[in-house]
Amino acid sequence: MSRIAYVNGRLVPIADATVHIEDRGFQFADGVYEVVAVLNGAMLDWPQHAARFGRSLRELSITAPMSEAALSIVARRVLAANRIRDGLLYVQATRGAARRDHPFPAHAVPTLVMTARPFDFRVRTAQQKTGISIVTQPENRWQRRDIKSIALLPNVLAKQSARNARAFEAWFVNPDGTVSEGASTNAWIVRKDGTIVTHPASESILHGVMRGTLLALAREHQIRVEEAPFTVADALDAAEAFITSTSVPCLPVISIDGNPVGSGVPGPVTARLAEALWAEVERQTGWRR
């Protein structure tokens, strides 16, 4: 079946889906996006994604293309048109099309695009057993990383550096040695006393939806949590490390720049958190591994 895209009020075959050549998303990366996990036909954590999407638009003074309720209806139409049971929904809005000029155009109409594709989340359960490797990169992004902007070139280059090194992910490292986050994930460590640590929510990191879910679940399961910066040295001295994101619910990190983390194998705290996350997925969607 050919894929179907939503573009500015129309469902069209993805091969025919187009936006104006002077769309500010194309010209200036002047837009925001969300990626939503779909399991058993249900959107995981949809209210949190919709709320973050709205916040990102407001932070960039982009007019919301529609209400949150309408956005939900369109999202479900896109999933139905593509017959997605397990997959990923992509939502993107830009400031719209206008004559190329840096200041905001006076009368541009926002562009809204949605696509959906299948994704097998069971590959993540296999990776939980083996763990993944990461590499580090100097932090070189703008200072408003809390906005889920489509300006992702540094993230693209970091991901490619990871691929070139046959690693799964890259962590951005600040000049002071602290880890901010991954190229498309949030970064975590587990101290030897069992405390899980992740960078505080601020303008320096994306406030990941899965990050928020995991923090809540950890506290519910009485696992100690600390939102504080940590360094690469802290991570290499930790008992465990892991990453989270919408498409990577919870994966153990077993090596950083070729150096083992902990015992070099997935650890028990990460495994416990992953089980709690999958239980939450089942509670919301009915999906089972």
UniProtKB/TrEMBL annotation:
Q: Does the keyword Amino-acid biosynthesis apply?
A: yes
- Provide the reaction this enzyme catalyses: L-isoleucine + 2-oxoglutarate = (S)-3-methyl-2-oxopentanoate + L-glutamate; L-valine + 2-oxoglutarate = 3-methyl-2-oxobutanoate + L-glutamate; L-leucine + 2-oxoglutarate = 4-methyl-2-oxopentanoate + L-glutamate
**Pathway, per UniProt?**
Amino-acid biosynthesis; L-isoleucine biosynthesis; L-isoleucine from 2-oxobutanoate: step 4/4; Amino-acid biosynthesis; L-valine biosynthesis; L-valine from pyruvate: step 4/4; Amino-acid biosynthesis; L-leucine biosynthesis; L-leucine from 3-methyl-2-oxobutanoate: step 4/4
Molecular function via GO: branched-chain-amino-acid transaminase activity
Q: Which UniProt keywords apply?
A: Amino-acid biosynthesis, Aminotransferase, Branched-chain amino acid biosynthesis, Pyridoxal phosphate, Transferase
Q: Which GO terms describe its cellular component?
A: cytosol
EC numbers for this chain: 2.6.1.42
The Gene Ontology biological process terms listed for this entry are:
amino acid biosynthetic process; branched-chain amino acid biosynthetic process
Tell me the cofactors it needs: pyridoxal 5'-phosphate
Under the heading Pfam families, the entry gives: Aminotran_4
Q: Which InterPro entries match?
A: Aminotrans_IV, Aminotransferase-like, BCAT-like_C, BCAT-like_N, Class-IV_PLP-Dep_Aminotrnsfr
UniProt-listed CDD domains: D-AAT_like
Transferase recorded as keyword: yes
Which superkingdom is the protein from? Bacteria
**What family is this protein classified in?**
Belongs to the class-IV pyridoxal-phosphate-dependent aminotransferase family.
Q: What NCBIfam families is this protein classified in?
A: PRK06680.1
Main function: Acts on leucine, isoleucine and valine.
Q: Kindly provide the name given to this protein in its UniProt entry.
A: Probable branched-chain-amino-acid aminotransferase
The record lists the organism as Sphingosinicella soli
